[in-house]
Write a structure and sequence with these properties.
about 575 residues, alpha/beta, 2,3-Bisphosphoglycerate-independent phosphoglycerate mutase, substrate-binding domain, 9-stranded mixed β-sheet, about 30% helix
Length: about 575
């Protein structure tokens, strides 16, 4: 795992331990005030985030409703429950047609308020022209001076989760206007944040735009390489550097499987493996005359145009690091100029050069709790570890107070998620139960990844199995919370597993030309639950006068459950007065 995603080490014997000696950040948040006359919690407050688990239509393509989940069903019947908005403007996205995602969801849960997310920040920088100042100008100057190539690497998608086609097109237009004559695009194919099997649609739009720019006769703008996002370039949290290596071979070495065009690559892979998802299409290199048309070479400049850092930081490290890089053999490393769309790691200031300044969120719930002496435990498996730490903390990787905060990562398996759908549910529950029983922590937060990661595979039975494993884990955590006379809160960051079919305007599943229902791999815009179950005997109810409440309301709710007065800048608590 990359160090900047959390303070965890492997002792070489299979144990993954938090590094308590790593210093935390100096918090500027003031201590919270205690609520006068409020019932104080006895045991710990335990928050479970069910990743990618929304409220669906309860038909056969709703894996949440059709999974056998007696624990979660029982909790929903016996405790206060309501739904929350987890998409669109409720989580700082541009419109209410925008799907939520894990990073945006955890940012909003931890921040307790709504703020502009990455796509909006880039949109504003383009509209104001600020994006073209500073590092963009420097890159253009370098390319012009060396008569070299400008490379753009990123997710070819309009899903608005990691990247945006409009941002890519703006970069292409500006590069042409700035006199760049040689440009290469390295496309990562989506199939997760947008409908699956749509890669050719996005590629055709890109090729049409490149053709327009090339029509002047003095431009050579081309697609040079690519591959599906889950097997090419876009690894995260150090889960599988082989994915980055595959991208390196395609983008830099030009040694991935050769094709005459990106379209030819996609078509060939689909012919060879019918039904293959866009997200796992193997890496490819575009060639002409037997040679790659655009490998990254010394003197070139590179922009990674993903605005979200988790799946862009590793390829950025591979491109920028010196001889200390150890994750795979890069071979000859070109000397390049580099910039990312945003700063992917604000703590390290990495990358050093970027086009848009991404705001760090101050005054998160964890910062306030650290200032108030509340002991905290955060735990998840690798796939979502950065979400309960970095994103939850307002895009900070380090703890606010090393003396009172513990972060624990459970290493994820490096196998296709549908082949082991339980993922690390049991091990995550083991860690959370141990934290509860230790009596050391006032606030415990965790994430179960299966609803999202397995939900993205389009395997409905496997997704049900993932949810059943999570349900068993929740049962163990609930029992431990009961024994400690604590309080259990369950919510989710966005929808996914509850809506696994593409649907028409009436909500009916769409059927493809083969007569089969078109399985959906993307997130949904469905609401998520907020469930509270107190085992200390407190009489708790949730407000019903805030119908548009969303994830931003959770932080104040947690603060009140801990016996404090929420900060004034937080969205209102959802606990009803008694």
């Amino acid at each position: 795992m990359s160090e900047h995603w959390g303070s965890v080490i492997n002792d070489g014997q299979g144990e993954h331990l938090s590094i308590d000696q790593v210093g935390g950040l100096q918090t500027a948040a003031a201590p919270l005030s205690r609520s006068e006359g409020a019932d104080m919690p006895i045991g710990p407050l335990v928050l479970i985030v069910l990743d990618g688990v929304g409220v669906g239509l309860r038909d056969e393509y709703d894996a949440v409703a059709t999974a056998i989940t007696p624990v979660l069903d029982g909790l929903q019947w016996s405790g206060p429950i309501r739904t929350l908005r987890a998409h669109g403007r409720a989580v700082g996205l541009g419109s209410d047609s925008d799907m939520g995602n894990s990073e945006v969801g955890h940012n909003t849960l931890g921040a307790g308020r709504i703020f502009d997310q990455g796509a909006n920040q880039v949109d504003k920088a383009i509209a104001s022209g600020k994006i073209w100042e500073g590092d963009w100008s420097a890159l253009i100057a370098e390319v012009s001076a060396h008569d070299s190539k400008l490379h753009l690497i990123g997710l070819l998608s309009d899903g608005g989760v990691h990247s945006s086609m409009t941002h890519l097109f703006s970069l292409l237009e500006r590069a042409s206007n700035d006199g760049i004559t040689k440009l290469r695009v390295h496309v990562l194919l989506d199939g997760r944040d947008v409908p699956d099997f749509s890669a050719l649609t996005y590629l055709e739009a890109l090729e049409a735009r490149l053709a327009e720019l090339n029509s002047t006769g003095d431009r050579d703008f081309r697609v040079a390489s690519g591959g599906g996002r889950m097997v090419t370039t876009m690894d995260r949290y150090g889960a599988d550097w082989g994915i980055v290596e595959a991208g390196w071979k395609a983008h830099v070495l030009g040694s991935a499987r050769p094709f005459d065009s990106a379209q030819a690559a996609i078509t060939a892979y689909r012919d060879e493996t019918p039904g293959i998802s866009d997200q796992v299409l193997p890496a490819f290199t575009v060639i002409e005359g037997g040679r790659p048309v655009g490998p990254i070479a010394s003197g070139d400049a590179v922009v990674v145009f993903n605005f979200r850092g988790d799946r862009a930081i590793e390829i950025s490290e591979a491109l920028c690091a010196g001889s200390e890089f150890e994750h795979f053999d890069r071979g000859p490393v070109p000397k390049i100029s580099f910039a990312s769309m945003t700063c992917y790691d604000l703590e390290r200031g990495f990358p050093e050069h970027y086009l848009v300044h991404a705001e760090r969120v101050d005054g998160t719930i964890s910062e306030y709790l650290a200032a108030s002496g509340v002991s905290q435990f955060a735990c998840a498996e690798t796939q979502k570890f950065g979400h309960v730490t970095y994103f939850w903390n307002g895009n900070r990787s380090e703890r606010f107070d090393a003396a009172t905060e513990t972060y624990l990562e459970i290493p994820s398996d490096q196998v296709p998620f549908q082949t082991a759908p339980a993922m690390k549910s049991k091990e995550t529950a083991d860690a959370v139960v141990a934290a509860i029983e230790s009596g050391r922590y006032d606030f415990i937060r965790t994430n179960f990844a299966g609803g999202d990661m397995v939900g993205h595979t389009a395997d409905v039975p496997a997704t049900r199995a993932a949810l059943e494993a999570i349900d068993a884990a929740i049962g163990r955590i609930a029992k431990a919370t009961d024994g400690a006379r604590g309080c259990l809160v369950i919510t989710a960051d966005h929808g996914n597993a509850e809506d696994m079919a593409e649907r028409d305007g009436d909500g009916l599943p769409l059927v493809g030309s083969d007569g089969r229902v078109r399985i959906k791999t993307a997130h949904s815009i469905n609401p998520v639950i907020l469930l509270v179950h107190d085992y200390a005997g407190r009489s708790l109810t949730l407000r019903d006068d805030l119908p548009n409440a969303g994830l931003a309301n959770v932080a104040a709710t947690l603060v009140e459950l801990l016996g404090f007065v929420p900060p004034t800048e937080f969205e209102p608590s959802l606990l009803a007065s008694t």
